[in-house]
């Protein structure tokens, strides 16, 4: 464990975030200009962004929350026995990943969260050559492993028979495996990559999916969500319309209290862009064996590896360079996040300003 003593993002969040109730009870009195008007509650989300919460803004947030809720379908389909069987299969995926039995782009590791791409994988976050929405690209065909047969038999067929999705809809399956305190920052599933709806099934434990949050880092903080959707073990969540396209969603650190896994089932668009053959993230046919071989390591498979707490990379770096860490541009290996533009991005690199999520 790092010298800072944190292996769980929830602990870091709790210890370093000002108490939300205290912030909400701060008032700015407009009477200072003699008018006695304009008394509004001010909540500071970042150094350069003040959000005034008046009655009007509260009503707007409530309207937005209703729009989010109306575009979500949620059903409890999988029994505890079915969940237990699927969870064993997820443990097998983790063990194979630890043993290096998957192709290079199948497994993506982040602090307290591992992602496993099947069928189709894509670049996002720090992997992007250019940052921002719309820059995501599918990997070339064959650069991630095929969807496992058990996903088809135990999950997809069950959803088809229940009328959740049509036959042949899914060609991309992603397993996100979270440790306590893990998270995915606010994002919208790339519109140019994936058709709608977005379907996810939750396993191992209950959690929550939040909409309209903003993330800040060093220390990590998350603003108040517009809408919080509880997700239970064995439940199926279907996002479409406003919830899928017009507002960001995320998993907050405080909502992952136990290990949790989610299987995300999607369909890629026929015209979704792919990495070019000359991209640094995609090897040329001459450099890649044919057929593509699995990337292997000398480590033995460890089914319990997913339960082992990890030390956050941010803590390691701060311990190595405590004085210089605040000047270093922080790179996040997680879901793609929004920025205000390249000029703002360059300004943050030079000044060390905090990264702010922008809600769409």
TrEMBL record:
It comes from Nibea albiflora (Yellow drum). This is RNA demethylase ALKBH5. It comes from the Eukaryota. The lineage of its organism: Eukaryota, Metazoa, Chordata, Craniata, Vertebrata.
């Amino acid at each position: 464990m790092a010298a800072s003593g944190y292996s769980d993002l929830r602990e870091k969040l709790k210890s370093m975030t000002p108490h939300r109730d205290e912030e909400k009870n701060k008032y700015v009195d407009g009477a200072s200009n003699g008018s006695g008007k304009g008394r509004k509650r001010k909540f500071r989300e970042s150094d350069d962004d003040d959000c005034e919460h008046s009655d009007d803004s509260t009503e707007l947030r409530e309207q937005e929350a209703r729009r989010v809720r109306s575009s979500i379908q949620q059903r409890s389909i999988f029994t505890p026995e079915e969940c237990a069987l699927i969870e064993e299969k997820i443990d097998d995926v983790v063990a194979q990943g630890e043993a290096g039995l998957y192709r290079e782009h199948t497994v993506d590791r982040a602090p307290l969260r591992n992602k496993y791409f099947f069928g189709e994988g894509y670049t996002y976050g720090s992997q992007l050559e250019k940052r921002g929405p719309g820059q995501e690209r599918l990997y070339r065909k064959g650069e991630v492993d095929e969807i496992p047969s058990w996903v088809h038999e135990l999950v997809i067929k069950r959803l088809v028979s229940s009328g959740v999705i049509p036959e042949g809809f899914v060609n991309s399956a992603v397993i996100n495996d979270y440790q306590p305190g893990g998270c995915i920052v606010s994002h919208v599933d790339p519109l140019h990559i994936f058709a709608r709806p977005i379907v996810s099934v939750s396993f191992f434990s209950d959690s929550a999916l939040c909409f309209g949050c903003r993330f800040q880092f060093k220390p990590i903080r998350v603003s108040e969500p517009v809408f919080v959707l509880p997700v239970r073990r064995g439940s199926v969540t279907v996002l479409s319309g406003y919830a899928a396209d017009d507002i960001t969603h995320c998993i907050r650190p405080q909502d992952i209290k136990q290990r949790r896994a989610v299987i995300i089932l999607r369909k890629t668009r026929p015209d979704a862009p792919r990495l070019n053959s000359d991209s640094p993230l995609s090897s040329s046919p001459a450099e890649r064996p044919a057929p593509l071989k699995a990337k292997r390591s000398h480590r033995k498979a460890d089914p319990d590896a997913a339960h082992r707490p990890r030390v956050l990379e941010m803590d390691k770096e701060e311990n190595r360079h405590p004085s210089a860490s605040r000047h270093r541009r922080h790179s996040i290996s997680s879901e793609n996040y929004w920025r205000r533009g390249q000029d703002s991005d360059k300004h943050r690199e030079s000044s060390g300003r905090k990264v702010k999520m922008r809600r769409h």
